[in-house]
């Protein structure tokens, strides 16, 4: 499949302010690119996987919405979870399928109209996705629909302030192959905003945790000096939600 034009993303709830179409052009950069913002997303998958594992039970059914090249879905499948990845980008899905193992499947779909029955999954993941859409509450509502009562919704996104603008927008321009408008400041969400949206969708907060790059490490400074994402670049938890943060919500049993 060729490059998906931006309008097709807009029609499916993705914001026209964000350059969502570049994901169709990544190919093997999903797993190997180091002069591109995707290298940082790959580095961040380690802490996201740790956060998800803390809340899942063995063998549970997981839906990874906007799964991209499978950076989170495939490792979870290797650990014995039953994982379904869904994405608008057919090219990204093919990359994910090329890396897939038993227990993982990948399907084309829209986050606003997921192609699954109600109460189909024990957990739904929205990793680095809410800041790409024009109607995040609609995304949360649809995710809640496919969750079993008591099921978990987990996400990662960016807060909205000067620090997040610096690290999640300005810093990405340092890597020479990064496209423009990977993130747009106006679409960043405060923790209070996400909690309000989630409550409206029948979801109650379990936990928020902040995350930041490991600044005091050689891989971080090597990445800065060389303008390439070092293979050891990683993130760590922080008590502050000021920049990046992850959250876990539970679907209420009575909703």
Would you mind describing this structure in some detail?
By secondary structure, this protein is an alpha/beta fold. The chain has one domain: Vaccinia Virus protein VP39 (Rossmann fold, 3-Layer(aba) Sandwich), CATH 3.40.50.150. Helix content is 32%, strand content 23%. It has 9 helices and 8 strands. The protein has helices at residues 6-11, 29-32, 37-55, 73-78, 90-98, 136-145, 162-170, 191-200, 218-226; strands at 61-65, 82-87, 104-108, 121-127, 147-158, 203-213, 235-238, 244-251. An 8-stranded mixed sheet has the order 3-2-1-4-5-8-6-7, sandwiched between helices. Strand 1 (61-65), helix 4 (73-78) and strand 2 form a beta-alpha-beta unit. Helix 6 (136-145) packs across helix 8. The radius of gyration is 17 Å and the shape is globular. It starts with 5 loop residues before the first helix and ends with a strand. The model is unreliable at 1-7 (pLDDT under 50).
General shape: globular
SS class = alpha/beta
Tally of helical runs: 9
CATH architecture descriptor text: 3-Layer(aba) Sandwich
Distance between the ends: 40 Å
How is the largest sheet built, in terms of strand order? 3-2-1-4-5-8-6-7
Q: What's the alpha carbon Rg, rounded to whole Å?
A: 17 Å
Number of strands: 8
